[in-house]
Amino acid sequence: MLSDIEIAQAATLSPITDIAGRLGLSVSDLHLHGQHMAKLTQSTVNQLHTQPVRAKLILMTAINPTPAGEGKTTTTVGLTDALNLAGYKALACLREPSLGPVFGMKGGATGGGYAQVVPMENINLHFTGDFHAISAANNLLAALVDNHIYHGNALQFDQVSWRRCMDMNDRALRRITINQPYAYDTGFDITVASEVMAIFCLATDLADLTHRLSRMQVGQSTKGQPIFASDLHAEGAMTALLKDAFQPNLVQTLEGSPALLHGGPFANIAHGCNSLVATQTALRLADYVVTEAGFGADLGAEKFIDIKCRQSGLRPDMTVIVATVRALKYHGGVEVADLNTENLQALSTGMANLKKHVDNMRQHFGLPVLVALNHFTHDTEAEVALLQSAVESWGSSLHVCRHWAHGGKGALDLAHAVARMAQQTASPTLLYQDDLSLPDKLHAIARSLYGAKDVTFSAQAEQQLGTLAETSRGLPVCVAKTQYSLSCDAKLRNVPEGHTLHVRELRLSRGAGFVVAICGDIMTMPGLPKQPASHRISVDANGRICGLS
Amino acid sequence: MLSDIEIAQAATLSPITDIAGRLGLSVSDLHLHGQHMAKLTQSTVNQLHTQPVRAKLILMTAINPTPAGEGKTTTTVGLTDALNLAGYKALACLREPSLGPVFGMKGGATGGGYAQVVPMENINLHFTGDFHAISAANNLLAALVDNHIYHGNALQFDQVSWRRCMDMNDRALRRITINQPYAYDTGFDITVASEVMAIFCLATDLADLTHRLSRMQVGQSTKGQPIFASDLHAEGAMTALLKDAFQPNLVQTLEGSPALLHGGPFANIAHGCNSLVATQTALRLADYVVTEAGFGADLGAEKFIDIKCRQSGLRPDMTVIVATVRALKYHGGVEVADLNTENLQALSTGMANLKKHVDNMRQHFGLPVLVALNHFTHDTEAEVALLQSAVESWGSSLHVCRHWAHGGKGALDLAHAVARMAQQTASPTLLYQDDLSLPDKLHAIARSLYGAKDVTFSAQAEQQLGTLAETSRGLPVCVAKTQYSLSCDAKLRNVPEGHTLHVRELRLSRGAGFVVAICGDIMTMPGLPKQPASHRISVDANGRICGLS
């Protein structure tokens, strides 16, 4: 069996100008990055945004992730390929992969098997440099803060809250002590966790980007007043650093479907989906836009709707929930080592997780739902049949997808069902109104989506509710909790009952325009495993990258 | 008067494919980065390197720099434009600018006036991402080191010497304390000071790059043994991160002359000139290659010859030394505020600095020399005449250049003289033989080039002479001293006499293949000034960058 990189490298890619041509774009709409990658120019993006939305927006989400793997990105790619194969004009809209995890456990994030976006080596490494630009903008601001203090300039800092970032899994940088201009503890986050990344993905245009950057809080004065990026005159230079990156990237799938990859904020402390600019652009370039939200539907889809859609006015037309037999058996209590064995009982139990997400999407967001079963080799016919009839009994439908093994033709059934369903008129809604209080917003999310019986606050969070009452008014809340459970306890699989959402800390992401509710320990700088993936990566005598996964 | 960025933005650029066409290259030889920047593909580079050298290599160097400014980059651009204007095929070979100083005091590094490489905003900001790739490779290695210790893997570190880097002027990162896996003091250097950058610029090809990366020392074991990057299996993944960056970048001057910009190591702790790959490529693409070495001839030209040429077998055909009336008056004792006033006496005194460099190039390197006088508005006819007759009395010739104001046609006199002189057969030599001891190499440099009466060593350096005796055998020495003086005391202008070169510390750059002799305080992470240049930078309503200089 070929590895993902071998499949990707064996593919014959079309010139990116041809891919653009299928979207009605010409070479003058592109800023080329070699033969197979391009950015859409800012003027093309601006011009497209004056046109009406043309596409149906399909939100790809999933059950709660498990170690068994679900395959949301592969399904997004597979569905897009299948829609194009079926004669529709479809475009995938995805996040860019983060560089750090490529050398760690996770590897790249360009799909897998015969459902990949390519050129995978470029996309997984530096791609068009967007994340480096975001790191530079973030770190220029940090340098300006410490430089301001060093020179004894006008602002009197009592506390610096702005952290540096790097697109690397570097555990040692989580907590560092800086010794100059004065000693204080700070640290680095991975770039995808920077507020600059969240802003980059929510800004409507360059002016909005500048405006959002300017209002970020970087620390507090000795008089207890917040200090903003604008107080350091940082937003102009930061925008200059981000200007080119802000243009969406066009690549292709293995089957030549167009894909826009742009931005990639964390899905815990941020909202976890590709840039608004890319989505808005995509909606003017195709009839179907398939986009993905991070983690499971409790985090990713909720934030997609309640943060990204709320801020922008976008609404998805329908949602596809990805599940696998293996992952549902895991939710049903089976351990990873035993997932290849048929287990109808466990599947039957674990299906509850899927049902909860299907219900959530329909009841709380008013969205039509299809279930995509990402098929694995060891899935038995009995398992698939059991799941199929269950999903149908809930009033939805299940579509077996084999895009990993067969590309677009493996997901044709899903594609036809999506095309049918997307034509229905949906009435998507937000989960809560802007004017609710912060605790009420959290209750709405926790009770209706997570099935929690209550929300509690630490003493710190209680205090922050007071401090933030004014500044957070009208803003959506971004829950940072484990992705592995509907609760905030990673060990509680399937559909836990009677649990409580405990909010440890609240943080205002003023530039991004949301309040982060931190529930549990959230890691904003990953580490590398004992045997890093980097050990296997090399460049061969023909200049070809090997060992990337 | 227009600013540099206004001149650059008003220019009409040719498609980079046209610029490549003038070098006999087609679009298939290019990895495009938009319309005006491209990398030459690795296969094109490999193919060119099998061809014989075609061009004369002209080394652009200068007197000791002063706050008055000399204009080495503008003169490199102006001479290249003038040679092309005169009907020769000429190509400039330059370093890429570092991002950090763009927000600090120095600003960008793309020339000035009507002698610039463009697009200046892109080149000065992220360009094609090379420096970000170098930062990532450097920092992956750092993460692997600390991760190895964290997991208690096989190597027992007693001391970690590998530092992180960032392409930002961030004073606060000079010295940081890491708290995990165990507390130790380390810090960040600016990316141009990373050994990865030096290696990137000296490697002959990708295999040599990997080999050099593998032999870098990252620390010392508890048994006192050196630990190398190869012990962490880092070189493969680092090469994968550097692979695309390793391809030279093609841009153009304001007049459409081709220019290769590639790499940019510090000129103190490293050798300070563009990549060997770019120079070797350029020599197959034109009849005249004009390249620049960092700082004055005592540092830049010496290292160009004794490090880059020694390792590669390259030899320049001649050298051009850039001087200004203002800078020579400064060497003659005039303060910055008074440089606009005619002062023949001070000029006459300060000319000694120029004469020393002219003599050095001829006597110690066997190179023909021309002097380029970069003309400034306030230079008087009497001053120019005085300098001209002095230079002629030394058996050289002086050429007044007005490329800053007039572009290539302002440097035609220099171009004709260069074309004549480069046809003569020179017998360039290295300053010292490989098999001299380290102290003897330092004596050769200090006595003959700097005019020092002696070389002394700190106790630490004395001890290091012993430790490094074996491992440094046959390697050239890279002197890290102030650029402002022929001595190691920045305050001693002109031609100081009776001074001593004091070596404080020796460091083996094992991957780069040289020993750094640190004389005085060398800053490897700059800071920002009280009013950073970033304050003035912004993006206007048309998406155009303003305020960059």
Structure report:
2 copies of one chain form a homodimer. With 549 residues, chain A is of the alpha/beta class. The first copy, chain A, has 3 domains: 4-128 and 245-421, Rossmann fold (3-Layer(aba) Sandwich), CATH 3.40.50.300; 130-241, Domain 2, N(10)-formyltetrahydrofolate synthetase (2-Layer Sandwich); 438-519, Roll (Formyltetrahydrofolate synthetase, domain 3). Helices cover 35% and strands 19% of the residues of chain A. Chain A contains 18 helices and 26 strands. In chain A, strands 1, 2, 3, 4, 5, 6, 14, 15, 16, 17, 18 and 19 form a 12-stranded mixed sheet that branches. Chain A has a 3-stranded antiparallel sheet with strand order 7-12-13, covered by helices on one side. A 3-stranded mixed sheet of chain A has the order 21-24-23. In chain A, helix 6 (130-150) packs antiparallel against helix 9 (235-242) and helix 13 packs parallel to helix 14 (381-393). The longest helix of chain A has 22 residues, at 344-365. The first copy, chain A, is globular and about 70 Å long. The mean pLDDT of chain A is 96. At the A-B interface, helix 6, strand 9, helix 8, helix 9 and strand 25 of A face helix 6, strand 9, helix 8, helix 9 and strand 25 of B. Chains A, B: It is an enzyme of class 6 (ligase). Chains A, B: Its EC number is 6.3.4.3. Chains A, B: Keywords: ATP-binding, Ligase, Nucleotide-binding, One-carbon metabolism. Chains A, B: Pathway: One-carbon metabolism; tetrahydrofolate interconversion. Chains A, B: InterPro entries: Formate_THF_ligase, Formate_THF_ligase_CS, P-loop_NTPase.
